[in-house]
Design goal:
Oligomer: heterodimer
Number of domains of chain A: 1
Helix content of chain B: over 70%
Structural class of chain B: mainly alpha
Shape of chain B: globular
Number of strands of chain A: 8
Strand content of chain B: under 5%
Strand content of chain A: 15-25%
Order of helices and strands of chain B: HHHHHHHHHH
Number of helices of chain B: 10
Order of helices and strands of chain A: HEEHHEEHHEHEHEHEH
Largest sheet of chain B: none
Largest interface: A-B, 19 and 22 residues
Number of helices of chain A: 9
Number of domains of chain B: 3
Distance between the termini of chain A: 38 Å
Distance between the termini of chain B: 17 Å
């Protein structure tokens, strides 16, 4: 099923992965990217080599993605998603499931903007990625730029149009010792922008 | 008129076509060996680059030949599906580079998921009368209607022109290749592969000769802004080369040498002019090759390879049918 889905994604979008800053390696990593469409996750996932796909997990909002059997099946059986709840229940850390997945040795894909934007440049990043970087310094942080996907499926449409997209992976980002949250998040955002391919 | 003593004509059709493929792959093999031998010699950086380009082109020809063979071996269904897939990939590349807008979404869906499969379905069913008018009549009316219903008036004409052009070249033009394969002519049943072969050889010869001629002649370009090498003299030499190919290969066609030459010249000329038009389109879109490596999309450059064929195929197809009706 996963293979079929990856094949369809490649047929529609090409889903070419350009590894500019680092090679595709089976290491534990956190990929973080700009977020413009529901397809973003599928695109990154399809652009990864097959061996890496199995251990790379997306993050899904629990209330939305478990609301119907199909959504539940898609996120659990096909993508092996990490569920997070959007509403905070009595002082439980919302990042807890992510930390658990990282402790398991899984790789994650996160969209630090928190929500889809339809602007050219990404919005300011939310702080989750900073906490993950702080608690798991050994995990590589890989910025990625997803290009053209907003043309494949604009907001409000359900059927994708075949248009070629690329995912460009940039150089790994490291949390400097003593770096504060704001400057790290800005640096992470700049790293995603730096992965954007040059326009003619 | 069509008297000919060639003993091959007595063979069963399938063996004749098989012989064609043996000859084709044999030629390609020889070309590959020659290029490999040529590459082994030391050379300057400029020469190395030329070799690389040559090898890339040769690989494309190999892929083209294999596709051609697969299309023939797998019969009507396989031929239709193979060329349909190529149409899809070419149209995907075209649409990626012409920068459509948000309001085009529904029209694009119509183009990819209705117009394209229907056109190839018509080929597969050999419904050639409807096939030749389906895109120019029905699709060309349906696309602007879908666009208008989407309710975005900005640059309406320009946006529709882009989509219709993409369909015309990538779907309508290319779909004539399997149509030639499946064309059933009186006294010529099952020999469509020869016609497609002649078409490909004529366009290729015209293209190569024009390229070489414009490099050697160094004439003043007709349209410097679009193509810095295109000149009328080189163009006519290309057409002449296509005519020569047609005359030499007349025995695989249902017509006499003169007509075969005329048909091949027509196809070669259309292919070369088509390439010029595509170049103008590319200049407009701001890319040098469709498969520009540094482009945003990382497109593969399929369109560059099939564009001359897309222009030549409909004209060639029409000339063949016109001769028989």
């Amino acid at each position: 099923m996963g293979l079929l889905l990856a094949f369809i994604a490649r047929l529609i979008t090409g889903a070419q992965g350009h590894w500019k800053g680092c090679p595709p390696k089976a290491e534990q990593r956190i990929y973080f990217a700009n977020h413009q469409s529901h397809l973003d996750w599928v695109l990154i996932w399809a652009a990864l080599p097959r061996e890496l796909r199995q251990r790379t997990r997306p993050i899904a909002a629990r209330d939305y993605w478990t609301s119907s059997p199909f959504k539940q099946w898609l996120t659990t059986a096909v993508f092996n998603a990490v569920y997070v709840s959007r509403t905070r229940v009595d002082d439980q850390d919302p990042l807890e499931p992510l930390l658990q997945a990282l402790a398991n040795g899984d790789s994650l894909v996160i969209f630090p903007e928190g929500t889809r934007s339809n602007k050219e440049e990404p919005q300011p990043f939310k702080s989750g990625i900073f906490h993950l970087a702080e608690q798991f310094p050994a995990v590589q942080l890989i910025p990625a730029w997803i290009d053209n996907v907003q043309r494949v499926m604009p907001k409000g449409e359900v059927v994708p149009v075949p248009i070629l997209c690329t995912v460009t992976f940039g150089e790994p980002l490291l949390l400097q010792p003593g770096e504060d949250k704001r400057s790290f998040l800005d640096r992470a955002r700049m790293a995603v922008l730096a992965a954007r391919p040059g326009r003619t | 008129m069509n008297i000919n003593l060639h003993p091959l004509r007595e063979w069963p059709v399938n063996s004749q076509v098989a012989l064609l493929f043996v000859a084709l792959f044999g030629l390609l093999l020889m070309a590959s060996v020659a290029v490999a031998w040529y590459t082994m010699r030391e050379g300057t950086a400029e020469r190395r680059e030329r070799h690389e380009r040559m090898q890339r082109d040769l690989r494309a020809v190999w892929i083209g030949a294999v596709v051609f063979w697969l299309a023939w071996v797998s019969g009507p269904v396989g031929a239709t599906l193979t060329f349909g897939l190529f149409s899809f990939l070419a149209l995907r590349e075209f649409i990626t580079l012409v920068r459509t807008r948000r309001g085009d979404h529904r029209s694009l869906l119509l183009a990819f998921f209705a117009a394209l499969p229907l056109q190839y379905l018509l080929v597969g069913l050999r419904a050639f009368d409807l096939f030749t008018v389906f895109v120019p009549v029905y699709v060309f009316l349906a696309i602007p209607v879908a666009s208008a219903l989407a309710g975005a008036p900005q640059r309406f004409l320009e946006r529709n022109a882009k989509i219709q052009w993409g369909i015309m070249v990538c779907v309508y033009g290319l779909s004539h290749a399997p149509a030639l394969l499946l064309l059933d002519l009186p006294r010529y049943a099952g020999r469509g592969a020869f016609l497609l072969f002649l078409l490909v050889m004529a366009t290729a010869a015209a293209q190569i000769v024009q390229e070489l001629a414009s490099r050697k002649l160094r004439r003043r370009p007709v349209a410097r802004q679009i193509d810095r090498s295109f000149s009328y003299r080189a163009f006519f030499l290309g057409v002449l080369a296509a005519a020569a190919v047609g005359a030499l290969l007349f025995w695989i066609t249902p017509v006499d040498p003169l007509r075969a030459a005329a048909m091949a010249a027509l196809a070669g000329g259309c292919g070369n002019l088509g390439e010029l038009v595509m170049r103008a389109l590319k200049k407009d879109a701001g890319v040098r090759y469709w498969g520009n490596r540094s482009s945003v999309t990382g497109a593969v450059g399929l369109l560059d390879r099939v564009a001359p064929l897309c222009f030549a195929a409909p004209v060639f197809f029409h000339s063949v049918r016109w001769y028989f009706n």
